[in-house]
């Protein structure tokens, strides 16, 4: 009664089931790997945000790269803002996806080195974005700031093209090496997202902190794929049994006898 499994239809269905099972198992492991990666990143971010503030020069120096363990660490720096050499970073959005700029201001430390400080977001003055926008001034004089340490931006990591021929004092990426050439100064690696002192009237608009990646969703997807993989052979066997019952029922049906005709 199982010879029907050799038919073309059932051979194709069986091969499809055989291929689906390892594919779904592999997808489950891939989702679990993504879950572990996201969990590890969330742990790193949480550790960095909870760590006590440290002087910025204890984590970075001119020409150094910010690692994943140093990213988001709260740092302090003492010096003064140099607004004369301030630039804006094009095509940046706020929390409502409005396009504008990030304000990047050099912060000259007491030892003469320069720290790049992202002071926040401002709206674009117009659609052309060719003129340098009006930027609220930071506090004057010597001060101590705190902020979140960030790595240099690159096209590979951000997907943002580093365009040439931009309007004066406008850039696409925050990169300490490029800014060191422009400023002709010793610029610390990476940059800082400003936390304090807070801007007056929330302008520039402060940049929010990082959020947790939804690692639990990947865990749920992994379990889901493995359940699907387990359901395939169960479903295949259910279809086989149903086909067998249907064939047996068809064979048990006898043709009805013809009734005699009364004349």
Automatic annotation (TrEMBL):
CDD domains: SURF1. It comes from the Bacteria. The chain crosses the membrane at residues 219-239. One of its GO terms (cellular component) is plasma membrane. It is a multi-pass membrane protein. It is found in: Cell membrane; Membrane. It holds the Pfam family SURF1. The keyword Membrane applies. Keywords: Cell membrane, Membrane, Transmembrane, Transmembrane helix. Belongs to the SURF1 family. This is SURF1-like protein.
């Amino acid at each position: 009664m199982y010879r029907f499994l050799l038919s073309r239809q059932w051979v194709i269905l069986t091969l499809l089931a055989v291929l689906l099972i390892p594919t779904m198992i592999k997808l489950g492991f891939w989702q679990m790997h993504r879950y572990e990666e996201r969990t590890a990143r969330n742990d790193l971010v949480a550790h960095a945000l909870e760590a006590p503030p440290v002087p910025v020069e204890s984590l970075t120096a001119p020409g150094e790269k910010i690692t994943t363990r140093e990213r988001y660490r709260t740092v302090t720096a003492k010096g003064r803002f140099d607004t004369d050499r301030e630039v804006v970073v094009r095509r940046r959005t706020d929390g409502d996806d409005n396009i504008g700029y990030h304000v990047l201001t050099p912060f000259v430390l007491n030892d003469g080195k320069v720290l790049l400080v992202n002071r926040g977001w401002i709206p674009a003055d117009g659609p052309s974005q060719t003129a340098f926008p009006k930027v609220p001034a930071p506090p004057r004089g010597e001060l101590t700031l705190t902020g979140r340490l960030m790595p240099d931006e690159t096209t590979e990591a951000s997907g943002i093209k580093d365009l040439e021929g931009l309007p004066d004092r406008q850039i696409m990426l925050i990169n300490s090496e490029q800014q060191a050439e422009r400023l002709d100064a010793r610029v610390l690696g990476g940059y800082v997202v400003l936390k304090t002192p807070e801007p007056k009237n929330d302008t520039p608009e402060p940049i929010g902190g990082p959020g947790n990646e939804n690692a639990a969703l990947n865990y749920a997807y992994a379990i889901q794929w493995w359940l699907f993989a387990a359901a395939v052979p169960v479903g295949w066997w259910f279809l086989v049994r149903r086909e067998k019952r249907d064939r047996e029922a068809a064979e048990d049906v006898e043709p009805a006898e013809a009734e005699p005709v009364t004349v």
